[in-house]
Amino acid sequence: MLNSIKKTYNGFPSLFWVIVFTSFIDSIGSTLLFPFFALYITEKFGVGMTQAGILIGMSSLAGIIGSTIGGALTDRFGRRRLILFGLVFSAISSLSFGLANDINLLYFLVILVGLLSRVAAPAQDAMMADILPENKRQEGFGITRVVFNFSWIIGTAIGGVMAEKSFFALFLTDAILSGLVALILYFKLPETQPAHHKEAKQNEPLQKTFADYRIVLRDAGYISFTVAGILSLLVYQQQYSSLPVYLRDTHNISPKYYGEMIALTGLEVVLLQFWISRKIRKLKPFLTMTAGVMFFMAGFTLIGLVHDLRMFYLVMIIITIGEMIVFPTNRVIATGFAPEDMRGRYMAIYDLGWTLPATIGPAAAGLILDHYNPNYLWYIGGAFCALSAFWYYILHLKLGTDSRFQPSKGE
C-alpha cells in the first residue's frame, strides 16, 4: 500500500500537491458554512425557503457575471493573481455575511459577493488543466475530489454542531482559513499559463479577449454538453440548499443529522473515489456521464418516497456513487473541449453549468416546498436527471468517436 501511495505521489507534479493541500484547508472552511447557509437565512431572518432561495439565486446570478469576467481575465492576465484575489475576497465576504443583521443588507451583500467571489473560479480550473498531463486528468481530478471530501467530512460534521450554537462561528472560521490559504499561496503559487499564450494575450486588446467568447458560444458540442450538465446540477445542488430545509420541516430531522449524512457521503468518496476514477478512465466519457446521472435520478426520486432516517442515509450513498462518476468525468470532458489559449473562457462557461442551476434552483424549489406537496420537488428532479442522462447518451452518439474524448491510455 505504501508503494502504491508513493507511486501516486510521484506521478504528479509537486505544484499539484501544493494546490491539493491548500484546497483541503480552504474547503474545510467552505464546507463548514455552505451546506447550512439556507438554514442560516431562514432561522436568523425568519423568512421562508422561497425568500432564502431568491437570495441564494441572486448571488449565483451575480456569480455568472463574475465568472464570465474572470474567464476572460484568466486568459489575458494569467491564473495566479485572480486566485489570490478570490481567496482574500472570500475571507472578507464571510465576515460580512456573519455580521449582517438586516435582511435588506443581505440582498446587497449577496450581489456583491456573488459577483466577485466567482471571478477566480475559471482561473482555478484553468490552472489544473495547465499542470495536469492529459493522461493524468481523470485520476488527478479524482484526487482533488478525495481531498475535498476529507475536508467535507471534517467541515460538515463540525458545522452541523456549530450551526446549532452559533452561525457567526461558521463565518469567522471560514474567513480565517481563506486568509491562511491566501498567505501560503502568495509564496508558493507560480503562474502556470503557457508563456507563449500569455505574451500573445498581453498584446491583444482587452475588448477582443471578451469578444472571443463568441467562439465558445459557437461550439455547439460544448454548449450542448453544458446544457446537459445544467439539467442534472439543478437537481444535485438541492441537497445543499433545499434538502436540509425539507428534512427539518417535512420529517423533523435536525441539522445535526443532516450534517452526519453529508459527512457520510464525504467518507464514501474518500474510500471509493480512487478506485472508481481508475476504473472509469478506461470508459467512454459521455457514456460514463450517462451512467452517473442515472444514479442521481434514482437517488433524488427516492428522497420523495422514503421517510425513515436510515433510508435517507442510504439515498445519500446512492447519490454519491453518481457524484463520484460524474464530477471527475465532466471536468475531463470540459478540458478536452477547451483550446489551450482559451481555457479561462471555456472554464467560465463550464462554471456557468454550476452557477446557473444555483441561480434558479433554490427559488424554484422554495416555491414547491412552501406552496405544494414538498415531495413533488424530488419527483420533478428525478425527471430532470433522466432527461440529462438521455442528453449525454445523444452526445456519445454524436461525439463519442472524436479523438478528444477517447478513454485514457495512461497507467
Description:
By secondary structure, the protein is mostly helical. It has 19 helices and no strands. The chain is globular, with a radius of gyration of 20 Å. The model has no long low-confidence stretch (mean pLDDT 83).
SSE sequence, one letter per element = HHHHHHHHHHHHHHHHHHH
CATH topology: Growth Hormone, Chain: A
Strand content: under 5%
Q: Helix- and strand-based class?
A: mainly alpha
Give me the number of helical elements: 19
What is the name of the CATH class? Mainly Alpha
CATH architecture: Up-down Bundle
In one word, what is the shape? Answer: globular
Helical percent range? over 70%
What features would you highlight for this structure?
411 residues, mainly alpha, Growth Hormone, Chain: A
Chain-wise SSE layout:
Blueprint: H1 2-10, H2 14-33, H3 37-44, H4 49-77, H5 80-99, H6 103-117, H7 121-131, H8 137-163, H9 167-188, H10 195-202, H11 206-211, H12 213-217, H13 220-236, H14 242-251, H15 255-280, H16 285-303, H17 309-337, H18 343-371, H19 376-399
Helix pairs in contact: 2-8, 2-9, 4-6, 4-7, 4-18, 5-6, 5-9, 7-18, 8-15, 8-17, 13-17, 13-18, 13-19, 15-17, 16-17, 16-19, 17-18
Short description:
The chain is mainly alpha-helical and 411 residues long. The protein has helices spanning 2-10, 14-33, 37-44, 49-77, 80-99, 103-117, 121-131, 137-163, 167-188, 195-202, 206-211, 213-217, 220-236, 242-251, 255-280, 285-303, 309-337, 343-371, 376-399.
